[in-house]
Specification:
about 190 residues; mainly alpha; Helix Hairpins; minor pseudopilin epsh fold; 3-stranded antiparallel beta sheet; 8 helices; about 50% helix; binds manganese (II) ion
Length: about 190
């Protein structure tokens, strides 16, 4: 069994001007595909070949983890995006208000942490495994909070390849616009999964 990722839910130009078709072409078409291909090459003819993508993220290490987690993280990132503005479902809105104080507080914390996530990595909205509360967490490189037992709801890719063609060094602008293109129904479904 080899791993694979779902096709994009929208055309490559559907997120413009937030993310250009050129960026989607490189990001989904080249970067993500390279992680998938590399992971498949590494697991071929090994016991890891029996594992699903999520199991690989939870159980592998080293180069297999790096490539499998990057495949998984990208799938999760693209699944969380939508060209059509969505409303935040009431149950999710209530939980965000309860755990962050307000929706604006959540947004500010997400933007601050994503902008300050040093180097290459991912910024996540999670349900913290210890407290059961929503939290914003940073991971580096291919890291994913599910390996700590957290439930993941949303992620933004802050590797430079995600935004550099469109925003150059202005990561904060990319993250701010990201929050206007989140599929909140996807986030809500992860809260209830
Ligand atoms: Mn990426």
């Amino acid at each position: 069994m080899s791993i694979s990722v779902n096709p994009l839910k929208f055309p490559a130009n559907a997120l413009e001007p937030f993310i250009s078709a050129k960026t989607i072409g490189f990001h989904y078409g080249k970067h993500l595909q390279n992680y998938v291909n590399t992971a498949n090459t590494l697991i071929k003819d090994s016991d890891l070949d029996k594992l699903s993508l999520i199991e690989l993220v939870k159980q592998s290490s080293g180069a297999v983890f790096n490539n499998a987690a990057q495949a998984y993280n990208h799938q999760f990132y693209f699944d969380g995006l939508t060209p059509v503005k969505t409303e935040v479902p009431a149950a999710l809105k209530d939980k965000i208000d309860q755990d962050f104080g307000s929706f604006d507080n959540f947004k500010n914390e997400f933007i601050t942490k994503a902008t300050g996530n040093f180097g290459s990595g991912w910024t996540w909205l999670v349900v913290d495994h210890a407290s059961g509360k929503l939290a914003v967490k940073n991971t580096s490189n291919a890291g994913n909070p599910i390996t700590d037992g957290d439930r993941i709801l949303l992620t933004v890719d802050v590797w430079e390849h995600a935004y550099y063609l469109d925003y150059q060094n202005l990561r904060k602008s990319y993250v701010e616009k990201f929050l206007d293109h989140v599929d909140w129904n996807f986030v809500n479904s992860n809260l209830n999964a």
